[in-house]
Amino acid sequence: MFSRKNKWVKFLNNSVWDYKVPININNWWYFGSLLGLMLVCQIISGFFLSTHYVAHVDYAFDSIVHINRDVNYGALIRGFHINGASMFFFFMYIHIGRGIYYGCYRQAGVWYTGIVLMLLLMATSFLGYVLPWGQMSYWASVVITSLLSTIPYIGPSLVEWIWGGYAVGQATLTRFYSLHFILPFIMVIVVIIHVGLLHETGSSNPLGLYDPSGVGMRSFHPLYSCNDLFFCLVAMGYLIKLSAFHTWAFVPCENWIKADPMTTPKHITPEWYFLWVYTILRSAPTKGGGVALMVLSILVLAILPLVPMTHWQGGTQFSPVGKMLFALWVSNWLIMTWVGSQPATWPFMEETVYSTVIYFAFFPVFLLNLALKASKFQLDRSLYYKLWILILYVSIMITIFYNLPESIKWTIEDFLAN
Amino acid sequence: MSALLAKASRQGFLQAKTSISSQGACISTGRRFSRKKIALAVAGGVLGVGSVGVGMALLRPANAQELILHPPHYRWDFKGYFAAYDKASVRRGYQVYKQVCAACHTMEALCYRHLVDVCYSEREAKREAEEAMVWDGPNDAGQMFQRPGKLSDPFPKPYDNVEAAKAANNGAYPPDLGHVVLAREEAESYIFALLTGYCDPPAGYELADGMAYNPYFAGGAISMAQALYNEIIEYEDGTPATQSQLAKDVVTFLSWASDPDLEQRKKFGIKAGVVLFLMTPVAFYYKRFKFHTLYTQQIFWKKGK
Ligand code: HEM
């Protein structure tokens, strides 16, 4: 039954045990397994939390207090779940950065399923954040869901449909709980597709080489399995350190106060992993513009697989200009994360505009640089793809221009007029 | 697999005219820089980062919008990897809570049983509970009745409802103290500073009737009058009950109440840390061991005939 002749054993064997991996992948390639580890961790700790959590507006907060106080190791499990979510995002951002730097986005299917996973993770953690029903939970859910009301025509009714009423309340909490429970399992399915697509073509590597002869490949086991084991231990160690000793580091103090629809907290700030999106949202003077930019900020990642195919399959790693662009973009991202945590005043609100422009401007410049770098153009993507880039970019440019502060707009208009 | 790869590679890089060695030379741009260039780059980087840092430091005072005094950061003895709550202090702090704060504040999530094996023995906690009279019922005759408290009873509430509490306190509701340490930005240090920081308002500051002035409280005017004075209660263990001693003890008690699991978690963390400390180097060695043939091999590509 367990012989390698069995169809399923063979499939498993080929996709895990004997899967061929390039020998020259470096440490940035291990974050994929760590992401899988985090997904499993979240599902396990989430399962234990769900055995004591009560999804009712009157009892949700008290059930969390009960988990903290009276359930054996309850606070520790909460710690795993809360800090695990943060580590999940941390690893995911590194994973995406790796993909951009080394040109891994050329595997379009893998890249697109990755973007779906990122959206699912964002949705899951937002929904989970609402469950403790503290002040920040409640007001975050109010603020984020009402962003949807800016969608033309259907917006207001869409928001009420999501709320299940005329305000965030009991119906909202229970459906958020159901969704929060189910989405990670959908993530598991998408992860399987993500990895399956990857195994169709094989992993990329820092040299950007394709190795059809297989001399530069080794089986996953025992090399990479041992490597992953080591990195998983390190990641678990870090998760345990956070959960055991700095358990509440990521919980804002407002969330230790039961949700009260009558009092708004002094500062509503999202979790650190949403701050960069928050900066983009706040860069626009109108709510609708901010929402449009926010959606585009994630969709824009989808244009990377459209990079011209050349004989050379690498990313920026051999291009000094590309490296500089990438460094600029990452620094900009870090600045966005910091600015997002600051109060909505001068100079931070002015800064958000520059950060947003740099964030979006990066992508075409980056692609152009890679295209120029290639000695031979071979644009083998269809017209359909080019149209998609064009539409995306025109809409970004219009949205940004529409949202620029008046002063900058006038300067540009003056410039164009002369 | 390799057939698939060959198909996917379209151009078949390995057959291309460019040689691998020139690719290798490109890998680190820095390697070909002269010393002077590297020194210049480093100096430029340091200057750049430094000026951003200075800029940020300068921005800070300009951004002080809220007129609020931030508390100093005291060194609490239960902070740190190997530290636990001082149980004698928790016990004294409970006494302060019971005799002073409980006149106005609730601690709804806490029951007498929570004190057992923390700062009281079971017998002591039972006696403590019995001091309170608790409404229970209905009995067989359908009547509500009062009885002495049990271990499973929560701490008594000073007011019947929120409105009564507000009415008695200048319209401000005394918040529940169960999580108050976690629910305030500067946590323990803030509450210590708040309890010991009462003073006269600065000249020209209009204080409404029945309000007190406290520079640590946002806005300065607080509805809670100063609660702690020297010798306001007498400790059963004979510790001199100075104001700062009372404040420190009650804050230790409140910290324990906010996060009673802290010690259990730290114990787990230490145990897991020891296990991981032993396992991780072994895993590291094993991975290096498996990789060593790879790390020491050299691959040459030659142009085909
Ligand atoms: C992709 C995986 C997941 C992520 C990123 C995630 C994220 C989160 C976050 C950020 C919170 C709020 C934590 C807090 O402030 O207390 C939360 C709460 C919660 N999650 Fe998850 N979660 C995941 C999977 C799951 C699963 C699979 C379950 C159930 C089987 C689950 C059950 C819960 C419950 C019951 C809570 C409320 C308890 C609490 O807040 O401590 N989660 N989750």
Automatic annotation (TrEMBL), chain A:
Q: Which Pfam families match?
A: Cytochrom_B_C, Cytochrome_B
Q: Which cofactor does it need?
A: heme b
What PROSITE patterns does the record point to?
CYTB_CTER, CYTB_NTER
| Annotated transmembrane regions | 28-55, 75-96, 108-130, 136-155, 176-197, 291-312, 353-372, 384-404
Q: Which UniProt keywords apply?
A: Electron transport, Heme, Iron, Membrane, Metal-binding, Mitochondrion, Mitochondrion inner membrane, Respiratory chain, Transmembrane, Transmembrane helix, Transport, Ubiquinone
Where would you say this protein principally sits, based on its record? Answer: mitochondrion
Biological process per Gene Ontology, one example term:
mitochondrial electron transport, ubiquinol to cytochrome c
Domain Cytochrome b/b6 N-terminal region profile spans what residues? 1-207
Mind telling me which GO cellular component terms the entry cites? Answer: mitochondrial inner membrane
Family, per entry: Belongs to the cytochrome b family.
* Record-linked PANTHER family: CYTOCHROME B (PTHR19271:SF16)
The protein in question is named Cytochrome b
- Native source species: Lingula anatina
From TrEMBL, chain B:
Organism, by scientific name, is Lingula anatina (Brachiopod)
Q: Name the Gene Ontology biological process terms.
A: mitochondrial electron transport, ubiquinol to cytochrome c
Q: Which cofactor does it need?
A: heme c
Q: Which family does it belong to?
A: Belongs to the cytochrome c family.
Q: Where is the Cytochrome c domain?
A: 88-218
Any one GO MF term held by the record is:
electron transfer activity
Gene3D superfamilies recorded = Cytochrome c-like domain, Cytochrome c1, transmembrane anchor, C-terminal
What does the note accompanying the cofactor annotation read? Answer: Binds 1 heme c group covalently per subunit.
Originating gene: LOC106179385
Main localization of the protein described in the UniProt heading: mitochondrion
Keywords in UniProt for this one?
Electron transport, Heme, Iron, Membrane, Metal-binding, Mitochondrion, Mitochondrion inner membrane, Respiratory chain, Transmembrane, Transmembrane helix, Transport
Spell out where the chain crosses the membrane: 38-59
Residue positions binding heme c: C101, C104, H105, M224
Known InterPro entries for this protein? Cyt_c-like_dom, Cyt_c-like_dom_sf, Cyt_c1, Cyt_c1_TM_anchor_C
Record's PANTHER family? CYTOCHROME C1, CYTOCHROME C1, HEME PROTEIN, MITOCHONDRIAL
* Protein name (record): Cytochrome c1, heme protein, mitochondrial-like
A single GO cellular-component term from the record reads: mitochondrial inner membrane
Compartments, as annotated in UniProt: Mitochondrion inner membrane
